[in-house]
Amino acid sequence: MNSATSQPPPRPAGMTGFIIVWAGQLVSVLASSMTQFALTIWAYQETGSATTLGVINTAFILPFLLLSPIAGVMVDRYNRKLMMMVSDLAAITATFGILILHLGGNLQIWHLYVAAAINGLGNTFQWPAYSAAISTMVPKEQYSRANGMMSLIESGPGVLAPMLAGILLSIITLGGILTIDVVTFLLAITALLIVHIPQPARTVEGQEGSGNLLQESVFGFKYIFARRGLLGLLLFFITLNFVIGLSISLFAPFILSRTGNNSAALGAAESAAAIGAVIGGVLISLWGGFKRRMTSIFIGEALTGLFCLLVFGLGRGLPVWIVASVLGGIFPVFTNGASQAIWQAKVAPDVQGRVFSARRMIAWFLDPVTPILAGALADYVTEPAMRSGTWKTACRIMT
């Protein structure tokens, strides 16, 4: 036998390998979104409490807020492919546990809290690992396209999962949906097993960032604050996302207050925004965005503000809100994909786990405050001012 023919074929790598991993994740996240939808219905039917749902969300977010810097260290220290698989295994463990408890008739609400925390822990490691892996798998000129494809993983399930879960719940019940979720996790892990994900080469920045766990945990923050360009880009996004986030937080009450609490109108507008995000992801995946990434960022942010703030706010009917929601959902994909591509190109690959974890932690710093501030402004400032005519007077003074 020829020695050349006895060698196993090379594992898929590059853009082909990325597409295989991406497809596995897309199917898995779709199934997980169906599970989340089904468990939300189950939890609300069991308790009738919105607070319960809030506690589940908090249990999911808390591991990220507490452990994100450590997760970044682990991603940079160890094999990134292994870290991705570990995060998927954590999710399988949580979902399989819920499935067994449900089939045995022993599922309780507090089990969902534990499962959400385990899922959140896995997600804390998953995001920096996948984001950093793109820079070693895909050529630089394909970063924006790859990030556009990743955005489809975030937005696509939001369109399909509620509809599919709603149909399947009446056919295969909660147990069937949980089983599908477990199977798709195994598919995602299989996709990781068959591809080649290169480890990053050691760089000067990586050597400078070496140390004990505490030193490496804060390295990502130091790295960002020492580079004015990256820090400026991050602050730019934090500021604009805060302003736009204020309006998005009022999305539901704005529509409900103007439609007589019409939940169908709210659902249509929310679905339109999700469809817009999918369209944006498809466009970037096929096109790749502008060659100058800052052009994508500035145009995307300007058009997002135009449709999310101006057109949506001035609209007084569902047709206008749907159009604004679709267009307002398209352009954030442009900005996010271009921004992520800049970070992947400018940050040394062997420190991206720590830097990306620190970046996301800083970027999410205002997220818990934004909805509260938006609600307070709406309840105690803008609505009373509009009713009294003070706001109109202020506008005349400014003009």
Name the CATH architecture of the largest domain. Up-down Bundle
The domain count comes to 2
Helix/strand order, N-terminal first: HHHHHHHHHHHHHHHH
Uncertain stretches of 5 or more adjacent residues:
390-399
Q: In percent terms, what proportion of residues is strand?
A: under 5%
Number of helices: 16
The percentage helix is over 70%
Question: What's the number of extended β-strand segments?
Answer: 0
The whole-angstrom Rg is 23 Å
Dominant shape: globular
In short:
With 399 residues, the protein is mainly alpha-helical. It is built from 16 helices and no strands. The N and C termini lie far apart (85 Å).
Task: Provide an overview of this structure.
With 399 residues, this protein is mainly alpha-helical. The protein folds into two domains: 198 residues, Growth Hormone, Chain: A, CATH 1.20.1250.20; 183 residues, no CATH class. Helices cover 84% and strands 0% of the residues. The longest helix has 52 residues.
Describe the secondary-structure layout.
Elements: H1 3-6, H2 14-47, H3 50-77, H4 80-103, H5 109-137, H6 143-194, H7 204-208, H8 213-225, H9 228-249, H10 251-258, H11 263-287, H12 293-314, H13 318-346, H14 352-363, H15 370-388, H16 390-398
Helix pairs in contact: 2-5, 2-6, 3-5, 3-8, 3-14, 4-5, 4-6, 5-14, 6-11, 6-13, 8-14, 9-12, 9-15, 11-13, 12-13
Question: What key attributes describe this structure?
Answer:
399 residues, Growth Hormone, Chain: A, 0% strand
